[in-house]
Structures are given as structure tokens and as C-alpha cells.
Amino acid sequence: MKRKRITQLFPFLLPIRRTQRKLFFYAKMCFDRNHYAKAKDPEFLPFCIYETKSKLLNDNTGFDIKYQENKVFNLRLAAEPVNGILICPGETFSFWQRVRYAEKNERYKDGLCMVNGELVTVPGGGLCHLSNFLFWLFLHTPLTIVERHPHQIKDFPSPDEDEPDGVDATVREGWLDLKVKNNTNLTFQIKISLNGPYIYGSIFIDQAIGHRYGIINREKSYFKKEGKTFERVSVCQQKIDIKSKQVISENLLYTDVYEVGYPLPEETAIAEVKK
To answer: Which InterPro entries match (predicted)?
Structure first.
């Protein structure tokens, strides 16, 4: 039987624990020798290396739609300190280094969030939509992934069926961050906007390059263990020549294994794994 954390036994200690974690979380950033991206420019760099959009509302959560609308409100707040940020050579982008300032003028509303393996409503819920979106942008660049945490459970199907699996990045202030480092001689800039039913994102650079990046899945499979269904999927980045459209190279970035929390189609092949 899994041991309970002290904050589960004594819930009144949770606010103290959260404050403690945040203090250490940001103090560590002050001494980890990373140069964090902080500069913003209202004028965007001349070359767009990648652009995309994502549907804001997901009707498959099983919760009141107001929590999805609250998520959109939260995303507008969180996108502001990220929009226009420059990531210069040698700099590291941290999700929380930027988003921590989002509540300067307005407070977050209650949105959906995964807590102790359950989907619940919390203030600021839904920010993982932004971290997922940013990570998807970063995957289409040569930026180096420094810190990224997948969700342990995928609770509902992605609203975009064409999107590869295993490309999420969950965040939790004080615990989990999303970080990428610029180990190139290029300067990158993030553009984020919300308009109508979509969030739009672009990555700009200061120099023209002759290739682009694509993300594909390899070795995708499902298995059951101890009554639970899991997905195993490898995520690869392809470097593609813009003129010829030929794949120049392909690199395995990582392999994810996570629990599937929704029914799969009946025809899905699922292997049985013994204990």
C-alpha cells in the first residue's frame, strides 16, 4: 500500500507546504547559473520558423463548460508575460519564470487540473494547455529541452486527432517546470495570442535557415497492467529541407509511457502484461 504524504494526512499543512516549495523553487533559479530569458520586444523578429493553433475548448471533459471558459480566461493572463519574449543564445526559457507574474492585475479563475491522479477544479486550472502549446512550439526548433514532465494519465482524447501523442508538458508551480535552452547562435522569439475558439502561436528567429522541423511518433503501442491501460510511444524530431522537402535527419527525443484514462476504440490492439 502506497504511503500517504504528510499533507494528505494533515490537509491544513498544505498551504504552508506550497509556500515553502515556491520559495525554494524560485530561490534555486537565482543560483543555478542559468541566464533566464526576460527581455521582450513588441516588434517580432523577421523569420517565422513555425506557427500553429490549438482549439481552446474541449467538450469531452465531463465537467461544466464554465471551467473551460475559465481556462480561457486564465490562459489570457498567462500568455501576456510570455508573448514577445526573446530567447537569445545561451539563455534558458522557464515557464514559471515568466508566468509567475501573470496575476499582477487580475486573479486566476477556477479551472480543471490533475491533483493526486484526479481531475479537479482549482484556481489557475488549465495552464497546462499553455505549457503543452509552448512545448509543441519548442519541439519544432533546435532549442534543447532542459526540463519537461509528461502527464501520468491522459484523461480524455486530444481534440486534434492529427496531433502526435506524447507531446504534452505538465507544470505545477513549485514542483514542475518547462525549460528549454538556446544552445545555438540564433535568437528566438515567442508569439502567443488568443482569438475566437483558438490559441495561436509562432516562433520567430533572427536569421533565415534552410530547413524546418517535424514531429512524428514511432513504436506506438498499448498494454494492460494490473487492470490499467497504458500507452507507450516514442517521439522523434525530423529535420526537413525546405526546398526539396526531404528528411535530412531524424532523432529520437524521448519515449513516454502513461496511463490512458478513457475508453479506446474496440479495434485497438492491447497487449496483456503480467505483473
So the answer is: Glycopeptide_resist_protein, Vancomycin_resist_VanW
Strand partners, 205: 47, 188
pLDDT surpassing 70 at residue 54? yes
Helices 65-79 & 128-139 angle (0-180, nearest 10): 60
Spell out the domain ranges in the chain: 34-210
Q: What share of the chain is helix, strand, coil (3-state, %, to 5)?
A: 20, 40, 40
Mean pLDDT throughout 215-225?
93
* Nearest partner of 143 among 183, 114, 106, 107, judged by Cα: 183
Number of Cβ within a 10 Å radius of residue 101: 13
Is the full-model pTM beyond 0.90?
no
Integer Cα distance of 275 and 261 in angstroms: 20
Residue type, 228: K
Strand order in the sheet with 91-94: 35-36, 91-94, 179-181, 144-147
The contacts of residue 180 (CB under 8 Å, 6+ apart) are 87, 92, 93, 138, 143, 144, 145, 146
Separation between Cα atoms, residue 228 and residue 250, nearest integer Å: 32
Half-sphere exposure at residue 240, Cβ-oriented, CA atoms within 13 angstroms: 16
